[in-house]
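Ticket 4471: requesting a sanity check on a complex prediction with adenosine-2'-5'-diphosphate. Repro inputs:
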Amino acid sequence: YPYFKLEPSGDLLPGFGLGSWLSKPGEVEEAVRIALDAGYPLIDTAAIYGNEAEVGEGIRRSKVPRSEIWITTKLWNDAHRPEDVLPAFEKSRKALGVETIDLYLMHYPCAMEPGEEIKVIDISFTETWAAMEALLETGKCRNIGISNFSQAEVETLLASCKVKPAVHQLERHPYLPQHDFIKKHEEWGIHVTAYSPLGNTNPSYAKGDTLPPVLKNAVVTDLAEKYEATPAQILISWQLSSGLSVLPKSTTPKRILENARYVPLAAEDVAKIDDIPDRRRYCDFSEVIGYKYYADLECHID
Ligand code: A2P
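Returned structure tokens:
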């Protein structure tokens, strides 16, 4: 797999890793162990997934030493008050049972009141970011980044930050390629990681959808035949061949192994997937949270 050099730390981010959102409790530990023993160099989790302790168990049960594993986790919306950032980070770090976190992301730009009730509060992500910058000085956090920001939100952050986000993790697959937004990240010097590269096949997201899932898209299945690969391998390889890192989620042992095969695509075949015209964003919590995410990006909710 390719590795990507991050600014400003100079660390090499593995291009490929296991996503763990919606991984069922009792399954994710084994999925992490299988993935690591099969050569996955990176595990992605988040405080809100509620599975950090299990992910940590899977890491310890694998044969791979901690020094060879990249761990990414995320700050939840209810800990955006600057004084809450370090305690939230420490809680995640201890749940994972590790000395250092390789990459800590602000999961979303909006802040919420702590507790069960979903209530957006007026704390700017720039204030939260300053507290994340301070984490770098503890020596326990190697890199900081963002997830699910709009273009205007990234620009606001860049205008006020001392340390740039090393990574922006966002939804990306052939129905949401975000070509212009990805190009912007090259200008900004922010590496992009794609989540839901298989179009998040969770049935609740595609209910009543008339579009075929990306895994069944004809351009993708034709390329799978051409490369003697599976549609999932083509979708994952498309991200890597486009210079992005990628986080397919699976808790199915056979698929975890399947997804680990990188099939470098010829430029003309990358372009074929780039040109798929259908558009769909599968993951948008704007209505649930009461905050307009992705306001200036493709497929946002008005
Ligand atoms: P499962 O975890 O049951 O194996 P995404 O990473 O785009 O969010 O997609 C994750 C979804 O895709 C999960 O439902 C996962 O199911 C499924 N999935 C993962 N790998 C494959 C694969 N190789 N082929 C088909 N579906 C897959």
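Notes from triage: The two ends are 38 Å apart (CA to CA). Leaving this open until the requester confirms.
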